[in-house]
Every structure is written in C-alpha cells, then in structure tokens.
Amino acid sequence: MQISKNILVAPLNWGLGHATRCIPIIRSILQNGDIPIIASDGNALALLKKEFPSLLALKLPSYKIEYSKKGQDLRLKLLKDSPKIWMAIRNEHKLLNHLILKHEISGVISDNRLGLYSALVPCVILTHQLQVLSGNTTWLSTQLHLHYIKKFDACWIPDVNGVNNLSGKLSFNEDADLEKVYLGPLSRFQLGSPGDKKYDLLVLLSGPEPQRSILEKKLLEEVKQYEGKILFVAGKVEKKQFTKKNKNLTYYNYLSTDSLQKAMDRSELVLCRSGYTTIMDLNKLGKKAFFIPTPGQFEQEYLAESLAQKGIVPFATQEQFNIEMLNQVENYAGLGAIQSDTTSISEILAETFSKVKENSEPIPNSLST
C-alpha cells in the first residue's frame, strides 16, 4: 500500500500568477494520492486558501514587493527594497527545516521563493525566468537568480523546450549546472465547450499595488466609451466577493477559478496584463487578447513585444492605451497554438518525490531557531 507524502507548495506573493499556476500542480499532487500543504503570504495565500479550503495553509515571511507609481522608477524601487527581500529569503530558508520536521514534509515545490531549499528533502523551484530582464543590468540580475536556482535539486520550467514557445528567450539558459525539467505551459483552466458568448470584453486585472489600482482607475474611465457588454474583474482577493452593475458593465472584485473559466469561455476578448501566467491561461483557452504591460516591468514588456512581433497579440503601454486600440485585435491570430507535449505533471511529481533525497543530511530530532 502506497504511503501518502506531504508535499509543500509555496508560491511567491507577487501578483496572483505564481499562486494560480500552482493550482494544477496541487491538483496533480492530490490525484497522485499525496497531500499538498500550501504556504505563502498575502493575496497569494488567500487565493489558495479559497481554492483549497480543506488543505493545511502555512504563512511564510513576506517579500513585501511593491511597485513604484512611475514605471521608470521600478528598478530603483526594487533595488531599495532588496535588503528586505534578501532578509525574507533568509528567514524562509531558516524556517523551512522546522516546517519539514513539524509537518513531516517529503518534498518542496517553490514557485520563485528563493529560500525554500533544504538538504533534508528534494526541493524544486518552478520558474520560467532563467534570464531575468532588467535593462542594462540583465546579466547581473540573471546571475543573482541563478545563484539561488542552483541551490535546488531541479528547476521546473512551465513551457516547452524549443523556439516555438510562450516565454521566448526567458526560459533559455545554457548553464550546464542547471537541472532543467520542461513541464509545458501550466494553467488552472480546462479546455472545454465555451458555449454562447455573453461578454464582448473581459477586463482582467492582477499584479502588485499601486500599479493594479492605477490601471483599474484608467480602464474604468476608458470602458465608458465601449459599446459592448463588459465583465470587469479587478483582481482584488478580499474576504467577501461582491459585484455591481452599471449599464453595460458588470464588476467583480475577484472570481474563483471555476467562475473565471466560465467568464473567459463566454468572452470574445480579454484585456489584461502580459504576465506569464495570464499568457499561459489565455493560451490554454485559445483566446484573443490585448495586453497592457506593467510599466517598468521588463519581463511583461518583453513578452508583450515578443507575442506582438509573432502576430499573436497586440499591446500598448499603459500611458498610451485607449479603448479604440482594441480594434487592432482582429489583425492578430490569438493564443492557443502551443500546448504541452511533455511528460504529465503527475509522473514528474511521482518520480521527483519517490525516494529519499540522495546524500541528504540525517533529520535531527529538533532544530535550533
């Protein structure tokens, strides 16, 4: 009889994308007969607790990532915040072995939480950022990221291995010391029968403050000029879900996975950020979209430009966007062509956590703080 293993799944709280792309991984752990334990902080933890209310949820140290009000100041803001980010990485690393012992954890899946590696059990990091774009400091930011990635037993990449991929150059790195496993694109959604269209436009917001609120305010003004039916999802994970209607607009603070899938299935067009998890979700459902990258977020700007150059999705900067630009979408192919042809996540999970970590340190009876 197979003994169930406790697997810690811990996404970074930076927007909602890291948490939502962990949903299919948590489902696969459950399908394998093992027990996921979720761990994060802030909105990421709140979202996963709503999606999986019966699972044990642990709070981790917060990276306290916030965006600047002006996009050009983002790199400087992150540089100023780097000491507290580094401290959070250090604190979660110190905490991890205690959690492993207390909750009898057999393996760790970290989505971009750089301190969650241990000598006690197999630990993998989930990231598509093998190159971290930061303008003229890209080489340095990439090397810093790789420094932490190499502390894990493997790097799981949510994309296909090849030129025809979703993440472009971000997921490519020839460093021989990297143990890479390509999972294929991850999405919490399932491709099904869309049914009749109900909305002409779905506005889907996400990401850290204050940029999420800045874009919300702008788009609520812009959509007043839109004649079709609009569903506006603000991406604010709050204690209670609420909705309000005004003329042709229906507004929600947030939607659950099932409700959001229905909303996307029944919408002709999605207006959103060009975050990588959002791109994977849109690709899964074969949607047409228009992107507004977060100002100063080099990765989102690169992804938007890359997909526009391929004739897949148009984009505009937050400052330049106006509602008439949505007419450009008809000249683009839309997402949906890139689907996973890799080994199933369930098989990868089973193989990764099937045995005790080789050359692991003996697990002590207790650990000092």
CATH architecture of the largest domain: 3-Layer(aba) Sandwich
The H-and-E topology, N to C, reads as: EHHEHEHEEHEEEHEEEHEHEHH
Helix content: 25-40%
Oligomeric nature of the chains: single chain
Unreliable residue stretches: 364-369
Shape assignment? globular
Strand order of the largest sheet: 3-2-1-4-5-6-7
How would you describe what is shown here?
This protein folds into two domains: 6-186 and 341-352, Rossmann fold (3-Layer(aba) Sandwich); 201-331, Rossmann fold, CATH 3.40.50. It has ten helices and 13 strands. The protein has helices at 17-20, 23-31, 42-51, 74-102, 138-149, 211-222, 257-265, 276-285, 298-309, 345-352; strands at residues 6-11, 35-40, 57-59, 105-111, 123-126, 154-157, 180-182, 201-204, 230-233, 243-246, 249-252, 269-272, 288-291. A seven-stranded parallel beta sheet has the order 3-2-1-4-5-6-7, with helices on both faces. It has a six-stranded mixed beta sheet with strand order 10-11-9-8-12-13, with no helix packed on it. β8, α6 and β9 (230-233) form a beta-alpha-beta unit.
